[in-house]
């Protein structure tokens, strides 16, 4: 048996992890004390883990998170008004399976983005396709896509995401293009996939910010009624970080 040919064939079939492990075992003569079934299972498991890890890394890259965040690092200090049991339940990601949404509000710097990105990172680890985006920039990109004829393609990308995170919602006024695009996004994803919306502005003011009563009613009806709500309190975490420097 020509092991070099076997390794090359494995690589040509894009089974590189299996090929590398097989070559290592041959070179170090590790195959003598293991059955053929056990050896095949070992190689297969190694290739499977490599495939899974590569997929997770690809999902994390495609999500375009703004920074690192982890559920284990979330601060549940009492002044933050963050229910630990509730958030840990959200961390199990059942809300994605149920196609539910999350709304996180609070002043600038209280950690809204961190919470959402921690959930988003966990979603990628569980192999859910995730997109993190600044709301104004996303809507601006969609406006440009209408001009070059790629609007429906861009919407399709958003619909494919199991979890869409819209940060800084409502910081810029919604013109007619932004309202229509937001309506398309929310309507396409309604009861199909989950969205997390982060805003400094309380939900009670969203109607006036969106503008155009009929569209605002339709958007809010689809977002608010199917959402878990988190209203963060406390001082800006960024101020605390500056004090520690």
TrEMBL record:
Keyword tags: ATP-binding, Nucleotide-binding
Record SUPFAM superfamilies: P-loop containing nucleoside triphosphate hydrolases
A Gene Ontology biological process term: DNA replication
InterPro entries: AAA+_ATPase, DNAC/IstB-like, IstB, IstB_ATP-bd, P-loop_NTPase
GO molecular-function terms, A-Z: ATP binding
Transmembrane segments: none
Name by which UniProt lists this protein: ATP-binding protein
